[in-house]
Amino acid sequence: MRKAFTALAVAAAVAASGGMAEAKTFKWGFQTDTSSLDPHAHNVTFTLGFLGNVYEGLVRRDADLQFEPGLAVKWENVEPTRWRFYLRQGVKFHNGNDFNADDVVFSFERTNNEDANLRGRVVGITEVVKVDDYTVDFITEKPNPIIYYEWDTWFMMDKEWSEANGATTPTNLSKGVESFAAHNANGTGAFMIKERQTDVKTVLVPNPNWWDKPQHNLTEVIMTPIGQDATRVAALLSGEVDMVYPVPVQDIDRVNKNDGTSVMVGPELRTIFLYMDLFRDELLYSNVKGKNPFKDVKVRQAMYHAIDIEAIKKKIMRGLADPSAIMISPKLFDRSENFTRLPYDRDKAKALLAEAGYPDGFETRMDCPNDRYVNDEQICQAIVSMLAKVGIKSTLVAEPKAKYFARIAPKGGSDYAFGLLGWTPGSFDSHNVLLSLLNTPDQKAGRGLYNYSGYSNARVDELTDLIGSETDKEKRDAMIEEAFRITTDEVATIPLHQQALAWGKRDNIELKQRADNQFRFYYVNVK
Amino acid sequence: MAAFILRRLAQSILVMLVVSLVAFYMFQFLGDPINQMVGIDTPLAEREALRERLGLNDPMIIRFGKFVLNAAQLDFGLSYQHKQPVVDLLMERMPATIELSFVSAIIAFFLALPAGVYTGLYRNRWSSKALLTLSLVGISIPTFLIGILFIYLFAVILHWLPSFGRGDVITLPGGWTTGLLTVSGLKAIILPATTLGLFTLTLIMRLIRAEMLEVLRTDYIKFARARGLTNRAVNFGHALKNTLVPVITVTGLLLGNLIAFAIITESVFQWPGMGRLFLQAIQEVDLPVMSAYLVMISFLFVVINLIVDILYYVVDPRLRVEKSGGGH
Fold first, then answer.
1. A455 and A467 in contact (C-beta within 8 Å)?
2. pTM score, two decimals?
């Protein structure tokens, strides 16, 4: 019966897409399942990336992450605190309803809800005004030049559909009320959900009424979560799926050597870095009493010099890492070539330590997740042994992310001396990096939420505010450069590298890899 | 009799309460569920508000009390990760786990029976020794590794069987999904069921062998032989029949183990069962799912033990004597 339905649906999709000769089913496996079909419920890259095939935002990003019109055809900053978006006309939701200004206002209200995990997308917006059916104004508290930078994953929902199905708010966990939208979808996107079995498979078919011209030749997409690395790779090698990601770095060779499969690698936007306790007067887990060696910039420089980043790249990341000099991917900041890493130099490190008053080094502890970033624990082990060679002896505590993040957070007592962390700016912009990682920590003001170093510099804070409202790109970039110059000179953190994306695929699959690890089916072609 | 059952029931409920309490206490050390639920840029105030709304700030004893009250009504709340009622999640996945466990029990039992009898009867043949050595391998290699080896051999190299998933399933009336009625479903269950059953297989085989050796030494077998009965009649008619009583008891108990220990197999083969759900729940600190799963599994064991106890009581008259003697 199910087979018959599938055949029927595929036939319908084929007919709709202009009578293609054969059905092109594309099967792919990812680590986990999408956590929900509700586009406003869960701020997770994979879920939003997946839903980007079903739902659409006002703006979207192409394969190179450049902005292009989405559900809005153009937008302009009519007043410093008023952005005007002109909507695309003739767009229909999957159920046939029209997309218009009411849906934008509704989507804003739905997102600006305490149960909406994506509330951050619309933070600072005081009001959304419908000008006419296809024009909407966003009023902001203060000038915001990057208001739409995170909007390619802020998706528009249909007001009528949501109201009719009682899905006007995302799932309310505390009240135990589940949203209809968690299991059903009605977007404007290129694909429609045909079948959804949580954690087993999700089947999508192309939207025959999509406003954009499809670049793909698919008639069906089957998404399967495959949690175990080895099983996922095996599924690709055995030909049961056409594409999987991520491929663990140690398996990349094997996939490449196998007939008919290969791995696409590319830099990810995430920056992996070390943070150090710069705020306690006495370092934790250390034999140095009464003071904190990390407060001395020479010690931080010494640590930096002691790390052989090329060895980490070669031995641990098997070439799949781009060592970085600043806290943001070079892809996201034009002037990043003005920065270089401190060279690997053990003698210099020892000399700096001696100058700082630690000729014999000191002892402390390193904290590390072991299931969050590519080879995170191995990187930490390497760093511990590299630091030991210049005299900084640290014991490594590596543990699952759920425990690790809870413990190093302020609520967990900021229990660390130094450790490893990774960061992708949600807005793909330096402002987010400065605000979250390098501003003076202030939970109330939302500054320095992940500044575990506790680094504080008034000029950096000031620059961050200016960058937040400066609309002239040249001026803005100059200020960003100044801020990064200060933080790198003071070694607020030690940037390590951008890890690489590794997508395994069969050779007959053509696709485009986005550096933010989002996967859009509308670029996929099966040859 | 009724008093005995009542007493056992009361004990079972106590066991369940203790298990839940221990589980509850352990969850304190798993990490913060809020971190897994919200985005990285969610401000602390919002996290705190969510924590408050979910009741995570309440003292443990209050949370536990609420949990027990709700659990008694089969309400385990919403999963933090899936944002669905936990009961629905478990019910959705239960058929997969039960089918997997039963098929592996069947595989284990029907392979173990001939192998155990054979090695018991012909203990000195080299083939028996080879079988025993092989069974040692089955016990000593971890399930995880066996699963991966199976996948590489049968899926990647030979292309005979699928490496993951449950294949096509058919929904029976009552909402039970089964993969046992489709070709792809049957193919998909072979590798995971064998992997899961291997340990049990070895265990039962060795048990049958030991029992056979034991029984073959007894007087009634000697008498049977003396009466001139054929080997076949002695071995299967007399010896095997008496061997099977303890074996069946143990197999029944092992079924509980299979269901509980399907976790690793399900994870390796991407089997959409309860075990995998539990494992994911641990990774994401999905407290409602974890508690519900643990309660369910302990309930299963408690029920099995209760039935076994009652059966013993019915079957073995000595127990009754001792019990009544205990009233002095």
1. no
2. 0.82
pLDDT, residue B325, reads: 44
Q: Are A67 and B109 in contact, with CB atoms under 8 Å apart? A: no
CB-CB under 8 Å, B36 with A231: no
Closest CA to A55 of A164, A147, A190: A190
**Set of chain A residues whose Cβ sits within 8 Å of the Cβ of B82:** 35-36, 198
Closest chain A residue to B165, measured at CA: A200
pLDDT of residue B41: 65
Residues of A in contact with B277 (CB under 8 A): 199
Q: What is the dihedral of CA A252, A257, A263, A266, to 10 degrees?
A: 70
Q: What is the ipTM of this complex?
A: 0.80
Q: Please give the Cα distance from A282 to B148 (Å, whole number).
A: 48
C-beta neighbour count of A147 within 10 angstroms: 20
What do you get for the CA distance between the two ends of chain B, in Å? 18
Determine the residue of chain A that is closest to B152 in CA distance. A234
* Strand A392-399 to A362-369 pairing: parallel
For residue A45, give Cα distances in angstroms to A42, A222, A249, B128: 9, 19, 20, 56
Confidence of residue B45 (pLDDT cuts 50, 70, 90): confident
**B156·A234 Cβ contact <8 A:** yes
- List, as ranges, residues 241-300 from B with C-beta within 8 Å of A: 267-270, 272, 276-277, 280, 283-285
Look at residue B320 in the predicted model and tell me its pLDDT. Answer: 63
Give contacts of A179 with chain B, Cβ < 8 Å. 83
Q: Does B158 touch chain A (CB under 8 A)?
A: no
Q: How far does the CA of residue A506 sit from the closest CA of chain B (Å)? A: 14
Query: What is the reported pLDDT for B40?
Result: 64
Cα separations (Å) of B36 from A62, A189, B42, B153, B280? 29, 28, 11, 36, 12
Residue B3 half-sphere exposure, CB side, CA atoms within 13 Å?
4
**Hey, are the CB atoms on A117 and B151 less than 8 Å from each other?**
no
DSSP conformational letter for A92: B
Task: Tell whether the model's pLDDT for residue A341 goes beyond 60.
Answer: yes
- A108 band by pLDDT with thresholds 50, 70 and 90: very high
CB contact under 8 A, A411 and B44: yes
Sequence-ordered strand ranges (E) for A277-409 = 321-323, 362-369, 392-399
Please name the member of A403, A436, A443 whose beta carbon is closest to the beta carbon of B31: A403
